[in-house]
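Predict both folds.
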Amino acid sequence: MAKKQALIKFTTNRNIHPHYYDYATAVQHVKNILKQKIGTELNLYHAGEDVHTLFETMHDMINENDVDVEILSSVYDNVSASTIKFTIEKNYYVIPSISNNVYYFRKYDVAMVRMPIYQNHEDFEEDFIFAKNDESLIRFINEMIAMQRQSMMKGITVFTDTDEGVVRHREKITQQIPREEVLLSEHIKRDIFRAIDEFFLKSGEFFKQYNIPYKRGILLYGNPGNGKTTLVKSIAGSVAAPIVYWQITENTSSYSIQEIFETVTKMAPMILVIEDIESMPDYARSAFLNALDGATSKEGIFLIGTTNYPERIDPALINRAGRFDRAYEIKQPDESLRCLYLEKKGIKQFLDEERFLYLVDKTKGLSIAQLNEVYMSIALQWHYEEPIDIDQIVQDLLENHRRTVKQEWDSDDYVKKVGF
């Protein structure tokens, strides 16, 4: 399409609207920098609301010192152009800021700028993309999305809804959890992993062969501490696909829902995990249901919802086909699972076979997380006192759990025990 003449042109004359002058001055300086540094003028494009993926990919490239992206200049001289980062290894490092720098991708003749805009009524940031032509821009976007998908497969991408919008960060999978270490009843574990494998193996060939829509949704529910998170981590470590972990908060809105589904659709096939799905705010539920029902919004997405309180879930989520196909209860471990877990933890270094079996029986009704605490308490008691009082350890744990659930922290007897 031929480029048309603009009705209003930017000049240094400040008689034009002051807000436009302030805005256009910054943009014009970027255009001048680009022409000066690369020797040609690039066209300005509106970045749109779904451009976050491009900036996330650029952020990864900066972290990895990718030579395909270079900084031509910062925009404002007295606005920071570098950011201090802190790693899980507790090391500090400095990288260029996404904001206030002009980034250029010479391979594509494309530049990207997240620029602070200062006006008298508010300050904000806006994203700009400059490209030689439409074709180079489209090629750039497609390749950046492909790069982002590859990058996301190096860990779990966590989306958190905040009052400033959706915040993203990447978490490395520091410990692979083999499927055999997931403590669930065998038929549930078989069903879930079989569905996962068929979804991601051979590009969903199973779904095409049997004319099944290429999307899947499962809901994991049950008391906390029984392995829902462990199951998700095991799935994440065993599939070659991006994993997005979405944390719903009171700030979840129709806008954040739209942004998240737009992002994950581009990354498909992939897994979207929604933690504590019952906490979806009432005012956002309609938008969420609409996103689940969209014709293409779930294509290629394996959706996993988790909840500790299934009774609080909107019935519309699970009473309509195409939202969640199956619901699995993650129950308290039975005797065989308690025996297996405690044995794997190494509890037999402290107990003979008779006392071990007695402990397994006494811990009936405890969760996996509580069994872990039983192991910790026994190890501490053995380390400092050697004689192990199984009855007292289990009783104290059950009492602590009862008071936590009922929020009964004010009795004099218990205050003396905890030392407050």
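Second protein follows, with its predicted structure tokens after the sequence.
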Amino acid sequence: MVLNDERPAHLAWHETLELHEIVAMQTSTLMKLEMFYPEIEDSMLQQLYRQAIEDHKNNLVELLRFYPKAPRHEKKTMGMMVEDSFFAGELLSCAKNSIKAYAAAITETATPSLREAFVKQLNQAITMHAKIFNYMHQQGYYPAYDLNQLLANDMKNAQKALGMDT
């Protein structure tokens, strides 16, 4: 249901951050799909990968169109080493996914000793996430407090992923 038919001049902060998360995830996934594709021998699996690659590319092109509507404030410049930032981002993504998986698993666990193991491992994943985030932030790979740079990095990385050859 549309409550207000007016189109806002810019995106809200919270949806911009969600957009950032989705673009970063789609970019990382596209890069992995592109890297794995040449190794696949099964023709049916190749077709599935090809479709997934095209879907991710189309998704990124569509989502990048929203970036000009992202809220902005003061500009800063920061150099980035893409290779290390990609690997660090992958590690951060793994930590985030682990946290989500453990949190979901805990809600389904009936055996106390298994729940205890999940909680212990969840806390380890949370600690690891913090360490990875701090590393990325200190290295300038994740400018979490600079939305302009965060979005600029997304666009640069997505454009790089879109330009990868399969």
